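Task: encode each sequence below as structure tokens.

Item 1
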Amino acid sequence: MNKYLKELIDVSLLDREIDLMEPKIKQIKKGLNSKLYQQEVKEQEILSLEEQKESHRLQLLKCNETIATLGARLEDISKKMGEVKTEKELKALNIEEELAREQITYQNSEITRIEGLLNSVDEKIEQTKASIQSIQADIVEIEKEVASELEEIKKEQEVISKKKSLLVDKMDQKIVVFYEKIRKWAKNTSVVPVYKQACGGCFIKINDRVYTEVLKGDDITTCPHCGRILYIQED
């Protein structure tokens, strides 16, 4: 096999090992990211509950303002009753007074209902805060485990990267540049074996001439369909 082709295969295998570390890292971080997402959801719940609480407070304020207005109205009615001259006027004032008192009763019942809602919201906020504290405790423990595992992955990456650097430094740099151009789009399938006279990257059959070139292995041969570097898998 051509020396440069052998080097390209070795480099591509090292690149593949390095790239395969990323899924491992994502998997390691999966549990941590899940907990961080849970924390974020709970924090959003608290914000929503705080908005509900503020809305209830405004409702309480409105009820109290209405009661104050109705109280002033009752005082005004009471004064007018002292000055009433006809039965018709008295009757009208009595009706107005009754309606005002009914409104006050209704507003008081609303205050009781809203205060109950406020208490319920406060309870939910406390429960959610307790959940966040529990999640944060889990995050601290998971972060320790993740940090340890990531450190091991980092060491592996450094070892493989060093191997690649040593190999690349010895290679013809024109061939390295050629390989990197293919790798930009082909990623881990930049250098692929031929299976049953088909490219191992695009899986399209190559013609006899190209296949013969690959079998000889004297030069670097690329797939005429996709441009990947081809080689014959040795036992």
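Item 2
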Amino acid sequence: MSVTQTILETIKAYPKIMIHRHQSPDMDALGSQGGLANILRASFPEKEIYMVGGPVDKLNYLVEMDTVTDEMYEGALVIATDTANEPRISGEQYKLGELLIKMDHHPDDEPFGDISFVNTKASSASELIYDFYTEFQDELVLTKEAARLLYAGIIGDTGRFKYPATTSHTLFVASKLREFDFDVAELNREMTEMPENVLRLSGYVMENVIVDENGAGMVLLSQEVLDRFGVVDSETPAIIPIPGKVKGMKSWGIFVAQPEGFYRVRLRSKGPVINTIAKRHHGGGHPLASGANAADLEEVEAIYQEIKKLVADYVKK
């Protein structure tokens, strides 16, 4: 029996399913989580199916989380989507479930779960969930809302089909999802609009990006800068692509101060593999899009020096 067949049979066996995703969710985290939840609710209306996790902040136009109690996890199946390692699962209650399934597309460097389905060739976890649906479409139902969420997840993780993970299959999946009658124009507006304070922070990023002669860049967002613009960390993903607009930029890091004193690090690349850097600093992710943490400004500088060396070596090849 294939792992996907095992997952379907396991889903059938449980009357209660709790679906989690990663902390600080992006569109793919919520798209895959919500897409799977809607597919399973339509396919198995007799089951109790919940979406669980922390705040979704400005992405609440996609989905809202359900309210659950510890007692509801008794005898429940837990599924975690778009989550590379167990510590990143949003919602500690997942540990209370009876069985844990991982459905993800990140490099499987830190396996977890009783059943694991990982496809690193998928552009996104949302694409992976769609493929799971199509494999068993005689038994599963894809709704308009599920299509909207999976489409949003794919758009988010491919940067509107600009990133290298976009394949002909990705475009095929997106085209099949667009056959459903959801308002794609409204969805695009919701995905591109940003609050005025984030827009003004974008201007600060453009003015203060540092880039060396090889195309290694960085932006530091101190707590003072965040307070000046009235921006919190969960609002900063919109500024991640900005340094990549600099001609010649090959890889960059955005360092965002956290209230606890450390810095959240977002790493992006147009060629050099940067998840090796992330793994050395309490993080991980895709070869060209990763995340890490820096304890202080000294580690921030150390990470930037690693980016500079990585890019310099890349340029020499």
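Check on item 2: The chain has a mean pLDDT of 95. Residues 193 and 289 are 23 Å apart (CA to CA).
End of task.
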